[in-house]
Structure formats: structure tokens, C-alpha cells
Amino acid sequence: MAEHDPRGERLDELRRKFGREPLPPGADQKELTPREAQPRFRGLESGHRACQGCGEALAARLVTECAGPDVMIANATGCLEVFTTAWPQSSWRVPWMHSLFENAGAIASGMEAAMKAKGKNTKVLAFGGDGGTYDIGFQALSGMLERYHNVLYVCYDNEAYMNTGIQRSSSTPHAATTTTSPAGKERMGKRHLKKDLLAIVAAHHIPYAAAASVAYPADLQRKVRYAMGIEGPTFLVIHSPCPLGWRHDSALTIEVARRGVECGLFPLVEIERGAVTNVMPIRKVRPVTDYLELQGRFSHLMTPDDARAEEERAHLQALADHNIQTFGLRGDTPDAGDTQASSSVGRGGHPAGRV
Amino acid sequence: MLEAIEGSQAIARAVAMCRPDVVAAYPITPQTHIVEALSRLVAEGEMHTEFVSVESEFSAASVVLGAAATGARAYTATASQGVLLMAEVLFNISGMRVPLVMTVANRAVSAPLSIWNDHSDSMAVRDCGWIQLHCADNQEAVDTTIQAFRISQETELPVMVCMDGFVLTHTLEPIEMPDQTDIDGWLPPLEFDRRLDPSDPKSLGTLVSPDFFAEVRHSHHAAMIRALDVIETVDDDWHAMTGRRGGGLVEVAGDPEAKIGILAMGSTFGTLETGMEHAGAQAGRARLIKLRAFRPFPAAALRAACAGLEHLIVIDRAISPGLGGVVGTEVAAVLAGAPDAPRIHNHALGLGGRDIPETIYADLMTAVADPDGPAFSVFDADLTKLDPEDR
């Protein structure tokens, strides 16, 4: 059996793959700065059963870490519920309840109403995947937003029903293959567009709705903190790659997520009371093929000399270009690409633009 | 002091006396008057409750579940299609053993669309794991509603209080409303040990493997069986304070020596009582058995109530197509095997709001004398309205 060597050969292999020199021996054992050495609150503990490279597990850890201990969570049915619990074990260090697939918004509403009735200010969070948010839990979410419950709803968007085995959802991108939108002689994957949920959520004129990505943890956490500070309904959709469903190397989760942002297909925008107030600028816009080529779910689009594949690639490129133009994503300030700095660099975008 | 109050208004006042922290509801006939009255009480500042007007019954049930899971006292009410839309959440609530109370203003289920009373709705969720109590009149409904909060707390089981839509909800009856100070003393604060609390984090509603699932169901069933005692004890306690009973598990009226019994749930019971008084001697006197606790099913109490009967007419206010009556079938099951078990005559009555007149008593007593009578019938169906092949 191979020796467990998490920061050795595999890391070197990855660094080479992305054009970086292997680390000199001992380089990873750097001394922690006082800031890095601070004990951190963890709402979601390690040891759960998520797959390697799970974007959702990472995102949920980042969210709960900065939401802090005085919260309670209503979790929709999905991978997150399944891999973190399994009685009698639980990875949650905060009060957490899973009820059903389609009612996280309503369960959270009830928790919040109870907190209000009892005069407590424990913040209520609702967690759902894209199936539980874009599709089956859509109505409960809309009701929660309309009634103005003081809840932060976080959608971990991995763009298909991963828990049941990778079926198409309304969040699945156009042309992606899933087990219910396979490619074949008559089909090039999903025939429809990804639902623009953020715009629909923003149309409730809630104080804050934003998109984040696991590739930009500092930005993600800044958005969580901002939402936590608002009394009222807030919404965060987090692009969370699923190596199993997207069929990419589980070591490439961050890279895939970053390319999704850099090509414009997943714009990181912030919308306050219906108006776009911030966007994550893209300094060097990538072609969508840079994003597609890493993922098996788009492999049918990469066949050479296939007119249908070419057409769908052009279609996806047009969708990305549309996002870039609509939200003014092209930035010229220094690259925020690396995660530590992304929350502190200047922002571009159309400050007064409407969705 | 007796007051003439509409059933729904009385229920709303009874709920308000229990001081729920959260009420969530969605409008549906004939339940609507209850939550309208509650929202008025909240608007007038007479009730300090978070009233959540949700976008569906699915969310109504989910909101009260979310609230109750934090240890709050929660209440909702619904009927008919609303019960069915809630069905998935109802199983979820009881499976997590979360205490809360819901009124069902019983109504038929579509199609064909009928807004009128029968028991199809609560029957459809018979196996959802809730305590299900059926009220014969509005006084019983008031008393049962308040008792339900205590039963729910003591058993950690949700309680469904069923009252006939329109027949009770929209009818004015003289009702003795309890005293707020009495209720405050009688109903202890809700202490839900497994509540969601950041100072003692727990995970609720986790995935459970086959290693534990059977045990969860077993303990749920055992808790329901134990609840039989709790329902009786709480009713005794209520009697000690108010001098009234809510109806225990099963109540018997009429002639205790009669060889013919009639068993019913809900307001039909009152119709039968009056019908018997008005029917005159030639119809004969029956033993009238009121089944108040449908879940848990009070097998022993029923056997005792039916002892000595030769014929038992069981009235169902719903139908299980292809089987017949659910109450009739269940009563037959618990009486089966006894050496002197009565012959069961099972009749569905008053489906979709078909009026049940007082004369039904005499008609039932006539039918029971027919040795060739069917084991089950839709008793008041007029077959001449149907094509011959459908009769």
C-alpha cells in the first residue's frame, strides 16, 4: 500500500501540471503567522463522507466557519445532508435540522419565527442544493423571501441532482450531459438554459443576493459576513463543482470553479434590493472551452470536426459573452485571481446596473 | 358561563389561551375562519404570537415544524386538499417526534371537487404517525384542542384534532369557554429536550441506516400505545379542573344493555343520539359508541365498549375504494377472535357533505335487522342516479 503522502508527490505532480516548480523539501511546513494560528470556529467538522474534491463540502465549511456558532441550520435533502449525518454520527457543531427536500425555506421561516417569538437573535441559515432550491424547493424559498424572514439561504449549486446520481436540474448548464440529459444521435446534452435564479431571487427586492464560488474563499466569506450582518432575507448561490457529476479530476475542483468564473459562465455578482452593486472583475477572460475541456460532462462538445459540437460551443460562448457584457465583468485592475487577495482588491462592474 | 360561539371562533380562542409562539396557516375552506380569527387576535394585540401567512399548506406544516424543533409551541390548521399537500411533512414531523397541534376541519377530497364535510382527508393520513382525536361537538373540540397541547408535550407526538367541517366549524353552539388563568396553570410551559439550541447543538432528521430504522419505528409505535394512557389521564385532569370530559378514548351512551350498537366518530354521534330520542319505541334503543381516539387505536377500550353486543353498526365518513370502510375494518379486526364478537355492519355515510338526517338512526336500525344485509354499503347512496351498470 502506498504511503500516505498528502503533500508530497501528488502535490508536485499537480504543480507540474499547472506549470509550477515542485516545492523544495520542507517548504510546506512553514511557520504559521499569528493570524493563521488563531483557533477557528468550525461549524462543519471533518470526517464526513463527502467525495474527494467535493465543492459543496468545502463551501459549507467556509460558510459555517464565518457564520459562527450562534446559528441554526435548516438543510434540504441532498448530498450535504447525507454525507454529514448518518445516525448516530454528525459532522455539525451547530444546531442543524434536515426535514425534507422541498421545504428548507419554510423550515427556516419557522425557526426564525420562533426565534423572534422568544426574543432571541440566533441567525437562521437554510442550506439546499440546486435541486432543492432551483426546482423542488423554489416555492418555499420564494415564500420565505417575500415574507422577509431574517434568514440567510445558501444554495450549493453543483448543477444537477448529484445525490440521486447526476440527473438534470433547472440549474444544469445548457449542453451539459447528465444521466437524464445524455448526449446521443438526437441530443447534445441538456436542451434548455440554466435558470437565472439569482435574478428571480433579486426580483423579490431582498436586501442582498449574491453569487460566490469555492475558487474564491475570501470573497465567499466576505459575502457570508455581509449577509450575516443584514436583518432580513439574504441569498447566496455558491458554484460548487462536483467531480463525480461533472466528471473532472477531484484535484481540480478549484481550478474548474475558477475557470467557470473566468470565462464568464458563472458571474460573481452582488445584488442589493434589485440593483447590481458589485461584480468580481475578470482581468483575463478565458474562452469557455478552457472551462469545458476539464469536464467529462462537456466532452461531447470537444469532438473535432463535429458541426453540432461547434454550434453548442458557440452557444455557450455567447452565453458567457452575454454575462460579461451585461454585468460589465471585464476588469483592468490587478488580478484578484488568487484567493487571499480577492476580497481586498478594487471592484469594477456597473454599480448602478439593473438585473 | 355559556356563550353562543361559532365553532371556528371558539377554536381560535382556545388556541390563543394556550399561548402558542408560532402559528402558520394557509387558507382553505372550511378551516379558514380559525386562522382568520387567530390573525385578528394577533392584530388586536390580544395574542402574542408570530403569525406566519405561508404560501401553501406544505409550508404551513414546515413552518410549524421548524418552529417546534426550536422548542416553540406551534399550531396550524387545515382541511382536505391541505391535509394531503401536507402529507409528506406530517410523516416527517411525527418521525422526528416533534410536539405540535393541528386542527383538521374535516372535508372531502377532490375529485370530484367537494368542499363539504366527510373524513376522507384525515383518513388519508391515518398512518402518518400523529395522534388523531375526533370531536363530536364544539365543546369537545374546544376542550380537546387545549388537551392536545398537553398530550403532545407529554408524549412528544404531534396531535391532530379533527372536527367536522361546516357541521362544527361553522355552527354556533353554546360553549363554556375556559378561564385563561386556569389554562395557564393547567398547561405547563413546553420543555422540548431535543430542541435546536446553539448552546447545545444537536442534529435532527439525520439519515438513518437499516441498522436503526426499525428501532425508530418500534419506539414510535410504542409511544403511540403509551399515549392511550396519556389521553385518558389528561382527560381526567381536565375533568378535575372543568367538570367536563373531552371524551377519553371511547365513550358509550344510549342503552348499555342493548344488543345492537352503533359506533361513529365526530358529529354523527350527536345526530344519532338525537335521532334515537326522536325515533320512538319501535326503532328500539341502541348502545351508541363514540370513538374519539382513532390513533392510537384503543383496542382494549373498544372491546370493553362492545362487550355483549350481537350487532355493531360502524359508520365510516370516508371510503377506501375496493375495501369499504376503514373504521369498520379496524373495529372488526380488534373484535375478531372474541367468542361473542358482534356481527359488523359497516356503512359509509354522509360522503362529500351529504346531509345525515336524524332519521338515519331508524333507517340503520331497520337495516341491521336484515339477515342478508351487506357487510359494507354506501348507506345513503341513491343508486337510481347511476347508470344501471354502475349500481
Description of the structure:
Chain A has helices at residues 9-17, 34-37, 55-67, 79-84, 104-117, 130-135, 138-146, 197-202, 217-228, 243-246, 253-262, 288-292, 307-327; strands at 71-75, 96-98, 123-129, 151-157, 208-213, 234-239, 269-272, 275-279. Chain A has 355 residues and is an alpha/beta fold. In chain A, α5 packs parallel to α7 (138-146). Chain A is globular and about 65 Å long. In chain A, 50% of the residues are buried. The model of chain A is unreliable at 338-355 (pLDDT under 50). Chain B is α/β, with parallel strands linked by helices and 391 residues long. Chain B has 2 domains: 2-242, Thiamin diphosphate (ThDP)-binding fold, Pyr/PP domains (Rossmann fold), CATH 3.40.50; 250-390, 3-Layer(aba) Sandwich (Rossmann fold). Helices cover 39% and strands 19% of the residues of chain B. Chain B has 12 helices and 16 strands. Chain B has helices spanning 7-17, 32-43, 57-69, 80-95, 120-124, 138-155, 180-186, 210-242, 268-279, 299-306, 326-335, 360-368; strands spanning 2-6, 22-25, 50-53, 74-78, 101-106, 131-134, 159-164, 172-176, 203-204, 250-254, 260-264, 287-291, 293-295, 311-316, 343-348, 376-378. In chain B, the strands form 3 sheets. In chain B, strands 3-2-4-5-7-6-13 form a 7-stranded mixed sheet, with helices on both faces. In chain B, strands 10-12-11-14-15-16 form a 6-stranded mixed sheet, sandwiched between helices. In chain B, α2 links the parallel β2 (22-25) and β3 (50-53). In chain B, α1 (7-17) runs parallel beside α6 (138-155) and α6 crosses α8 (210-242). The longest helix of chain B has 33 residues, at 210-242. The model of chain B has no long low-confidence stretch (mean pLDDT 97). The chains are: A alpha/beta (355), B alpha/beta (391). The A-B interface holds A 69-72, 74, 81-82, 85-88, 90, 92-100, 102-103, 105-118, 122, 139-140, 142-143, 146-147 and B 21-22, 24, 48-50, 52-56, 58-59, 62-72, 74, 88-89, 92, 96, 196-198, 201-209, 212. β2 (96-98) of chain A pairs parallel with β9 (203-204) of chain B, so a sheet runs across the interface.
